[in-house]
Write a structure and sequence with these properties.
The chain has seven helices and no strands. With 127 residues, the chain is mainly alpha-helical. The protein has a domain of 64 residues. α2 packs across α5 and α6 crosses α7. This is Transposase IS116. It comes from Thermoanaerobacter kivui (Acetogenium kivui).
Length: 127
Amino acid sequence: MQKVLEGANIKLASVTTDILGKSSRAMIEAIINGEEDPAILSELAQKRLKNKKEELKKALNGLIGPHQRLMLKTQLAHIDFLDEQIALLDEEIKRRMLPFEEDLERLDTIPGVGRRTAKHIIAEIGT
């Protein structure tokens, strides 16, 4: 996604730390929908990014064509699909780990072992 934006001379990643954060995502979706004005796009900034509106205006000043819009739209759709699949798998893992709740809680008390690592331990070596 960053390469598509940079190919259009949009340097969003130079201003924001998360190219798929809420603000960046809103800006990218607006670009996909045809918005090109950097001032309008920078108004979509939220929270701490609001303090960087002038930098955003400069970073969002590019030349987006139909090809870049299509590529951005396709990439966002793919990311959304993958997020949905990850959520489904997380739910399945949660369901399958229910019988091991007590073991998970015990493993979680080990310093450096969090809930996810505890699940990996049980999945790999059992209880």
